Amino acid sequence: MRNLFTTRVKIILVIAGLLTVALAIASGITNTTIPDLLVKGALAPFRAAGTALTSTAEKYYSYMFRYEALEAENEVLEKRIAEMEDVARQADAVSRENERLRQLTGLQETHEDYKMVDAYIIGWSSTDWENTFTINRGTAAGIQENMCAITANGEVVGLVTEVGINYAEVTTVLDSTLEISGTIATSGYNGMVKGGYSSGNESLLRMNYLPSSAIIRNKDQVVTSGSTVYPRGLIMGYVVDAGFEETGVAKYALLDPAAEISSLEQVFIITEYTTEVSTVASSTQTTEPVQAATEATVPAASEGSVG
Question: Looking at residue 263, which CATH number applies to its domain?
Answer without folding.
Answer: 2.40.10.350
